[in-house]
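## Example record

The block below lists the input lines for one assembly entry, exactly as stored, with component labels intact.
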Amino acid sequence: MENVVEVKNLTHYYGKKLVYENLNFNIKKGSIFGLLGKNGTGKTTTINILNGYLKPTSGQCLMFGEDSYRLSPETKARVGFLIEGHIQYNFMTIKQIEKFYSAFYPKWKKEPYFELMAKLQVTEDQKIAKMSCGQRSQVALGLLLAQDPDILILDDYSMGLDAGYRRLFLDYLLEYTKGDSKTIFITSHIIQDLENFLEDCVIMDYRSVLVSMPMKKFQQEFKQYRFTTPVHNLTIKKNEFIKNFEIIRGKASLFTFADKTEVENFLTKESIPYSDLSQVSMTLEDAFIGITGKY
Amino acid sequence: MFKALVYKEWLKVRWTYISLSLISMLAILYIFLNVSHGIELNGSVAFWSFVIYKKYMFTADITYLPFIIGVVIALVQFYPEINSGRLKLTLHLPMKENKILLQTVLIGGGLILFLTAFNLLLIGVFSASYFPVEVAKNTLLTLIPAYLAGLIAYFAVSAIMVEPIWSRRIPMIIFFAGFVSVLFGFGDYTSTLLLFYLITGSFAVVTIILSGFYFKRGIK
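Predicted structure tokens for the full assembly:
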């Protein structure tokens, strides 16, 4: 399938501080892709590079086959971009901002925008600056839908939104993009909302990528095992097999892609005394915390 | 697309621009009320000789007004852009980034130029009604460096605001402050020097492209 975004060996430093090294991923046309990670792992940096607001230290980032640092106006028109915090021109009113943007986009459809605005029960002369964070998120989403882009890049759409507005945001996004081969690239710090939303994901850690795979595969294959051990200060280092290990007063949690037999073999081989080994079901948020760690 | 950009910039600056236009009109009225008062008080011959032989600049009170207008318009136009990284929205518009930035400052510069022309017309008409044409002409010529300073200050402040890093902003501030301050310094300027400033000052227009380049290369 055609790739809309190709990230190849992307490395970025802020001064001497490494953000990440050799980041690689592709986003397929029509897919819903999530870039997940804790704060400071480089999600916004990646989005800035993708939109041409940052020149990477090395590597390449292609958007519709064009170097993202030098996107042509035609390609920019195909990209809908939601800035972290739903930033828009807050000196404009609901009506003015629609009038402004409509002049730039040939495929502009004002209906979804005004439909969303009607739900907010605000007048068209309402200034964006005087709207709540939730209402501003609907303005930003409405403008994106009206632009009718081929890819929507949403940088932390959930920032500052309560559960209702977060749900509304995703519901509308899905409703207006389904069946249209639209690609969605989303980052969020609220993971549980994306549980049944994402198709592919990359989970980033500081300076590296932890996971890059289809979401369903990750949820099916990434497992948490709990066991009890008399060794209260037990430490198990992370490696290819053990993705994370935590212990509180002899109650241990081990995160891995391996099955139960492999875990048993590992514990026996390492001479770790254990009892009550069992697999624990996880939500996406549990799995995310499991693989990234709590700290 | 240019019309849409004009619309956006106008929405940002309209109240400030209208206020500054009124302030400058009132300032010009005040100057000529002073002139009228001076003539009534001292007699026209005495006042004229004061202007012609003593080089009394009756427009001295508005020398810094164009500079203030330039700086304020740039602040009002670009503060909403740099605040919360809104410039990213502007640069994401489907146009070449340099073209967007250049058109944005040309819109602001055009508004200032229009106000300048209107102010100079008012001053010219008032001057010519009180003094011989030669005095009116010299009054306008004497004010040109101040208005040029206003325009250069506008382009400079715009570029300084778009520039994302203070270590580059500070040298820009020092350079432009020095450049503009010279325009307030010469009473007895020559037209060659003015032409030099007009040409070198026009480079201030494109400084924003350099700032935009740095903004794009390394936004924080």
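The mean pLDDT of chain B is 87. Chain B has one domain: 2-217.
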